[in-house]
Amino acid sequence: MFNLLKPATWFASPDPLILRNREFFRDFDQSRPLADYTFVVCDTELTGFDRNHDEIISIGAVLIRDLQIDLGSIFNQYIKPRNLKHTEATLIHRITPEQLADAPSLEEVLPAFVEFVGNGLMVGHFVELDLGFLNKAARKLLGGTLANPAIDTIRMARRYRQMLLGPFREEDEHSVSYVLEDLAREYQLPSFKPHDALEDAIQTAYLFLYFLKKFRKGGLLTLKDIYQAGRVGSLRY
What we know:
This protein is 41% helix and 16% strand. It has 9 helices and 6 strands; from the N terminus they run H-E-E-E-H-H-H-E-H-E-H-H-H-H-E. A 6-stranded mixed sheet has the order 3-2-1-4-5-6, with helices on both faces. The protein is globular and about 50 Å long. The N and C termini lie close together (5 Å).
């Protein structure tokens, strides 16, 4: 797990963006109805999964307000990595070095993304991966990490299947898939192009709202209910 409140020790003072972020979530209220919160569903495309060497090459995000996707509020940006020779980007995401050559750097993009996130609650499919890379960059560039609570739709999917099976049955992990596009197909949700940061974020938003609807029918009405019942997220990633 990651601690969103741990500041970078080599900065004398965190960036004002980080200070405002920390202040808002210092006494965060989890007890309000789910519709009261703004959710920021995000996804990153990476050159690989090694946090020590790989880089973010795209960030996509969409807001959910009043439990509805707001397609008028999106964030979508390619990012030029320090090393344009990474071949994984082309192989997995079909993002070529040529497409990234004229993109802004992460130093330019990250503050704009933090502004976009604002006081929203982060949502992602395997959100720990995205937050790991984002917070590494935030420590380096802004002097601290984001305090926004986070919810993982993979954990929601696991909890939902547990609810369907009942307390005395366990699913065969080898017989199910938690891949984003497989879950969207299983639950007959709108389909979007995989391995594109914005489209994956929108796909995740549909999945997130699907699970929220099911959980609310089961009497889980507040953010605290969702966290306690399913352990689907953490306030201290």
